[in-house]
Amino acid sequence: xxxxxxxxxxxxxxxxxxxxxxxxxxxxxxxxxxxxxxxxxxxxxxxxxxxxxxxxxxxxxxxxxxxxxxxxxxxxxxxxxxxxxxxxxxxxxxxxxxxxxxxxxxxxxxxxxxxxxxxxxxxxxxxxxxxxxxxxxxxxxxxxxxxxxxxxxxxxxxxxxxxxxxxxxxxxxxxxxxxxxxxxxxxxxxxxxxxxxxxxx
Length: 201
Prior knowledge:
The chain has two domains: 4-41; 61-198, Nuclear Transport Factor 2, Chain: A (Roll). Helix content is 39%, strand content 36%. The protein is built from five helices and eight strands, in the order H-H-E-E-H-E-E-H-H-E-E-E-E. The N and C termini lie far apart (96 Å).
């Protein structure tokens, strides 16, 4: 067993000791960044089963990296909100899956606010999306802008009619807080801004 007092009083042993310590620290300083870099490059993975029962393994992307997903969810959200009849949304299940509070209550308020006119004129409304833009992204949310026109057909005073409105929807998308009960959609609408003006053309 090495006597610590003898180690530091003997110049040769002390030199060897400090050389070993310096060498170990140098190795750590070289290896540590490589290990941290590899950890940073390792993505979470998700396992998805399709309708045929086949499992797929894919890396999880950050919200800001998934532009195609943003467009897909924005399209579903716009259709669920805008495609309507006198009975309300054409797809109430999708509306409930995609919209979480407070956006869900706000969407219902808009739909219910127009329900009297829809019933009186037997209006059926469809959205025609012309443009989707992601206007802001970060690790917590995406703000997506959807533009297009809504076409309304109905019957009033015994006469059929058709009219169109230009619309703009701004959606704030967040990670779906409850995938198991919310349709397994990765994103949900947390906030909704909507405006529509009658098309003069």
